[in-house]
Amino acid sequence: MSWDDTLALRVVAIDALSPTLRRCRFAAADGGDLPTAPPGAHILLTLNAAGRTYRNAYSLVSPPHDRRRYDIIVRRVADGRGGSAFVHDALRPGDIVTAAWPANLFPLDSRARRYLLISGGIGITPMLSYLPVLAARGTPFELHHVCRADERAVFADLLAPYAGVHVHDGGRAGFDLDAILARQKLGTHLATCGPRALMDGLFERARALGWPDSNLHRESFGAAGGAPLRVTLARSGRAIEVAADQTILEALEAAGLTPNCLCRGGACGACLTAVLDGEPEHRDDFLDDDDKQSGRMMMICVSRARGPALVLDV
Predict the structure, then answer these.
(1) How do the domains of the chain map onto residue ranges?
(2) What is the pLDDT at residue 54?
(3) CA-CA distance, 6 to 129, in Å (whole number)?
(4) Cβ neighbours for 151, distance < 8 A, ≥ 6 positions apart
(5) Which one of 10, 181, 221, 312 is most buried, counting C-beta atoms within 10 A?
(6) Predicted local confidence at residue 175, as pLDDT
(7) What is the mean pLDDT of each run of 10 residues along the chain (314 residues)?
(8) Of 224, 226, 229, 256, which is closest to residue 311 (Cα–Cα)?
(9) φ, ψ (nearest 5 deg) of residue 95
(10) What is the pTM of this model?
(11) Which fold, 229-312?
């Protein structure tokens, strides 16, 4: 598989789970089987709206063994870049969209004797593909999902087929993080996806309680947007303006460039780019602390600048 390999998908169903959540089902446009998507996988969709193209990554929530469909759940983001609004307002059954082959940056670890899953908001989506696999394998698991009170019923319904699941609304009643972490048996692996504050706090508490890093797993959907900036491309001398609602990656794509990308959430390392001048504002989960302190490289899919300009080795 190369960066340019794509799939043609037909929208076969769109379900309104709530005013802000849509479940979309896709099938292969040619009617055949889809590539296998292991638990935790995502697809990168190309969505063509009037005057703009969106490339967004979405976790697959359909059972991994079912090669006749890919399901995703999309939350409408009021102050987002427009991709979620397109899915909610413009995408219709019968439409054909382009997708990259499934990629997996959040796989289940076969060494785990037990799993503790903790998610927040739309971060439940990669967990939904975990659950049928863990159940089929007989791997014990415990899941805690934190959500808004008005969405509790939606997530409780999605998780209803599984035992060991706890849904906590915004008040987090019964969500005693230290107690949950402390009671886990040796050999338990922790997987989390959700708001960065939730994941950072969870990892901090787990490490303080002695959990080894090898047993800690996270999936980040990234963070985008900020002050406008100018990016100068050192190899050509071109200056690219990055709007407040764009990522650097999106601005380069809009200018006709085709940087490597895979997750668009700061996790995979595909869009790693050298910085020749300026100070990056790192928002990724790929670079280690030393790399971030050096300021010599950045993930252009999510990170920005601590100033009005950057010069990149592009």
Answers:
(1) 6-100, 114-219, 229-312
(2) 83
(3) 22
(4) 18, 20, 21
(5) 221
(6) 82
(7) 75 96 97 96 88 87 96 84 84 96 94 96 96 96 94 94 90 78 95 92 94 94 80 95 89 90 86 96 91 94 94 95
(8) 229
(9) -65, 150
(10) 0.87
(11) Ubiquitin-like (UB roll) (3.10.20)
- If you write DSSP's letter for every residue of 201-266 in order, what string do you get? HHHHHHHHTT--GGGEEEE-------S-EEEEETTT--EEEE-TT--HHHHHHHTT-----S-SSS
Rounded Cα distance between 77 and 60, Å, is 19
Q: Residue 129: its pLDDT value, please?
A: 97
Distances in Å between the Cα of 254 and the Cα atoms of 31, 240, 251, 281, 297 are: 32, 9, 5, 22, 22
The DSSP bridge pattern shows strands 165-168 and 96-100 to be unpaired
The CATH architecture that domain 114-219 belongs to is 3-Layer(aba) Sandwich (3.40)
pLDDT attached to residue 172: 60
We find that the CATH architecture of domain 6-100 is Beta Barrel (2.40)
